[in-house]
Amino acid sequence: MEMQVGLPVRDQFRRRLKVLYIQPGTSSFAGIERVVDAVCTMLADRFSDDFEVDVLYTSVHKNRPTEARGYNVIDRVAHGRMDLMRIFRNVIKSKDYSLVVVPQIEPTVICMAACIGLNRRFAVHLHGNPKREADHLKAKILFLLMRYYFLSRVSHVFGTSPRQLESFKEMFNSRIPQVWVPNPVRAFDLSETTSSAEVTGVVTFVNVGRFAFQKGQDILLQAFSQLVKIRPNVRLRIVGYGAGESNLRSEISRLGLDGSVSIEHHPTSPQPALATSDVYVSTSRWEGWSLAICEALRFGLPVISTDCEFGPSDILVDPRLGRLVPASGNAALVETMAYYCDNLSTEKSHSDFRKTFIDRYSPERVVEIHAQALRSAARAFA
Predict the structure, then answer these.
(1) Rounded to an integer, what distance in angstroms lies between the CA atom of residue 144 and that of residue 345?
(2) Which residue, of 133, 186, 188, 209, is most buried by count of CB atoms within 10 Å of its CB?
(3) Residue 120: which of 96, 102, 104, 103 has the closest Cα?
(4) What tens digit of pLDDT does each residue of 113-145 get?
(5) Are 123 and 159 spatial neighbours (Cβ–Cβ below 8 Å)?
(6) Quick check: is 4 in a domain?
(7) pLDDT per position as a tens digit, 297-335
(8) Which domain range does residue 31 map to?
């Protein structure tokens, strides 16, 4: 083998860590899927000398980017659970991976079960709320398998929130090393932001997320129906996608909000809505983190959020960023929304503070944390 002149011998023989990330077998390319894609893209761009990054896709995702990625894409569409396990085993066996990173607890158990007998190291990457995820029989069984069999074989647990990691540790009585790996918050073009209140005199609230029970858009609609009675010059934009859309539309009509609430779809970026709104509102019943809150802060918007587990209270650590209200919403939510209607000019003075604050989660900063977490988790194979 030809030696490279000028490089220390130890660097010439240093082996790149082979890392495999598993994408969720979902249909929409949204929260977790975008995080995995962003992290792996950054690792491939910034740390190509240290890591060889593969990403396994086992389903067809709507809105998945078509541009070439810096990481290696492995497409193996699974048709059923047994086929999924076969794909996991074949792909993981095909290369001497230093680490396999799997999102969430249930997929990790399935993946590790498929790979029994293979000498591979796994990391669980938490994105949601473990307490909320074990709410049906299959999940309960898989959680038990994790606790009593697979957890001792896990190298590291990665989490999107410090409180989330503490909850996992308590729930599983875990002594596995844990690392907080913040989600990267993408940059946007902020040159064309327009306050709807300044242009029309109408204060526009905005919410971005899946149309699902977890995200609590029903809580938001109930509160907004009370707000319009005391602050008529308000508007609400609900941005997202999901099976719950028809129920949301029915609830909007039932509450008589057709003239002041709109449902919008911006599948690749929430920028059109965030750039032309005044206040962001999150009424989730639970979160793992909240990229949506972080992206709203990117635009300098003040944030109102329910104080749910786990992310919002980890993000809104200064009143200039926003305010937390009880998880149920109710009167406190209405009161806080009214406060921002009445004090919007004052709150806009903190816009630059919010933008500067969220820079700590910029991709170029977060990738360093992810890289170090991978090195720690794969140390035995380095």
Answers:
(1) 52
(2) 209
(3) 96
(4) 999 999 999 999 999 888 777 677 888 999 999
(5) no
(6) no
(7) 999 999 999 999 888 999 999 999 999 999 887 899 999
(8) 9-184+363-381
191: in domain:
no
Q: Are residues 219 and 322 in the same domain?
A: yes
Nearest CA among 122, 114, 103 for reference residue 176: 122
- Read off the pLDDT of each residue in 152-178 and give the average, rounded to a whole number: 94
In a 3-state reduction of DSSP, which class is residue 55? strand
**With left for phi above 0 and alpha for psi between -120 and 50, is residue 145 left, alpha or beta?**
alpha
Q: Is 242 left (phi over 0), alpha (psi -120 to 50) or beta?
A: left
Q: Is 156 exposed, middle or buried (0-12, 13-18, 19+ CB in 10 A)?
A: buried
Burial class from Cβ neighbours inside 10 Å (0-12, 13-18, 19+) for residue 16 reads: middle
Size of the chain in residues? 382
Phi, psi of 22, deg, nearest 5: -100, 125
The Cβ of residue 309 has, within 10 Å, a number of other Cβ atoms equal to 21
Whether residues 56 and 96 share a domain: the answer is yes
